Amino acid sequence: MTEADIPAVSALENRLFPIDAWPLQMFFDELSQPETREYWVAEVPGEMTTAEPASPQIIGYAGLMCIPPIADVQTIAVVPEQEGRGIGTALLKKLIDGAISGGADDVLLEVREDNPRAQDLYVRHGFEHIHTRKKYYRDGVDARIMRLELGQQKLAQQRLAQPKDAQHETKN
Q1: Taking the model in full, what pTM does it have?
Q2: 18 CB contacts (<8 Å, ≥6 apart)?
Q3: Could you report the per-residue pLDDT of 145-157, keeping only the tens digit for each?
Q4: What DSSP state is assigned to residue 110?
Q5: Maximum Cα interatomic distance, the chain, rounded to a whole number of Å
Q6: Cβ 83 vs Cβ 49: under 8 Å
Q7: Chain-centre distance for alpha carbon 148
Q8: 105: Cα separation from own chain's centroid
């Protein structure tokens, strides 16, 4: 995500989370902290309405705060028209990879109790429900706090990063 993406992301934020939407300035504030924050957008080609090439359309976004040993999913969203196409999974994988490369041991997130689709996504990727914050959201809905321990993912990435000869090393 760049500053140029913020107006479109903010419009999506207000559409997708009308009760809990971040103020526009918060996105600028988040991007101003690159040492601990990373943000991504998912785009599709824009529709051609003139002879000129169309700008890509943002259909999802995600953000991570990483202050080892903890990383926290700040936000993740995909427009409903694009759900079920792997976009949320791709964004979540970016967040997890960012947490690993940032040195985190765990990733935490809050998800609305009334959002089973998002909860299922997180569970499929190894997140566990560890706590419930009662009436966390402005409309009184509880938040499920979920955690992903990164130990296994870190080991897998280390193995993939090793030269092939080192991966097949045996002991006598």
Answers
A1: 0.84
A2: none
A3: 999 999 866 665 6
A4: E
A5: 69
A6: no
A7: 13
A8: 16
Q: Encoding tokens for residue 135?
A: 């009436």
Block residue for tokens 């995500």: 1
Residue with tokens 């000129």: 52
Phi, psi of 73 (to 5 degrees): -70, 115
Residue that is written with structure tokens 């947490």 in the block: 99
Angle subtended by helix axes 24-31 and 6-16, to nearest 10: 130
d(CA 39, CA 103): 17
Return the amino acid letter for 153.
Q
Give the whole-angstrom CA distance, residue 84 versus residue 143: 23
Say whether the peptide bond before residue 53 is cis (omega within 30 degrees of 0): no
Instruction: For tokens 């990733």, name the residue.
Output: 107
